[in-house]
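Why do we bother with a discrete structure alphabet at all? Because it lets us treat a fold like text: something you can write down, compare, and reason about line by line. To make this less abstract, here is a complete entry for Ribosomal protein S6--L-glutamate ligase. Read it the way you would read a sentence in a foreign language you are learning: slowly, and without expecting to understand everything at once.
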Amino acid sequence: MKLAILSRSLKSYSTRRLKEAALDRGINVKVLDTLKFAIDLKRGDPDLYFRGRQLSDYDAVLPRIGASITYYGTAVVRQFQEMDVFCANTAHGIANSRDKLRSLQILARHHIGIPETTFVRDKRDVLPAIERVGGAPVIIKLIEGTQGIGVLLADTVKAAESIIELLQSQKQNVLIQKFVAESRGRDIRALVVGDRVVAAMRRVAQGQEFRSNVHRGGIAEPIDLPEEYAEAAIRSAQILGLRVAGVDMLESATGPQIMEVNSSPGLEGIESCTQLDVAGAIIDYIAAQVEFPEIDIRQRLTVSKGYGVSEILVPDGSEFVGKTISDVDLSSKDLNVLTLNRGSKVIPNPRADRILEPGDKLLCFGKLESMRGMVPARAQRRRRPKVMDLPDTAVTNPDSDGHNGHD
């Protein structure tokens, strides 16, 4: 197998350990500077050049994309994907995780526990937003901060207002987040590889510092991760589209709350703390996946005209409630059920005798027209509105009032 590690930090601990682990397993590995690639696009033949020369063939890529080069880095990873090279983390997954707001939006929709969070731009919305997350103290975060940089604790509403106003005046996007008092100064980092947690540690802040990051002087201790926390970490990584991730969690009174999912987690702290070969676990996973890779099912299944992947909601009062999947007879409609979402549970390949309940969501592949036919008539009308003629108004016909304004 030939593996490329995309990294700008050739001498960093993580890059050196990953290369070392690959060489120990007899893998042909090279570390390539992400910014030295050129992306060539032409019909049916995507290609990459590295340092001015056409890139040779690789079986797999392990991206280590820093926050400062997210856009170009994900473009390079995406090009590898279009060339059918297995990528340990996809461009889509990296982009999802890099934006704190986007990642929390996605996780919240999938019933993952997160600290209550709000995002505002108008200064008049700041006070109501602070109240909605429980009042001061609150955490204020830059959307793209890393290693604890851009994370502030405001003890009073006045302090929070001042900090937010200052950051917004510098064109910074900030999140306002509930302060989880019972987890003050500590969090859990779980290293997810594929469908399991390979190592976990608790990080504890020192002195008056509330941020527990090792980079901020926090002390780490190995832990046996409770099943509830392991499941939350794995699901969070999978939902965002990451196969290798560091998942940071708070230990709240209501269970795990995901703070952040990192697509390029550092390995030095967790390997030193747990004395586990995390780099080796990552390389072993990649080697196994190259032989039997996962694919982007939505992209592959939506290239046929009239066919696609969509989610069908079974609302309360639906004719399908109380019926089994076989009773609904989806096969005759040229539909296949891929998963059934019930609350926070995802049931893959649900049995034909499973009874449907209100609120169930069926992820289906098949004829889009058939799926539209299963949507209640009222919702169908909302989804497929009739295109009307342009009305004759003062806006569309400026001559009617002699004024043609501009936005």
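What the structure line is telling us, in plain words: The two ends are 57 Å apart (CA to CA). The chain is about 30% helix and 25% strand.
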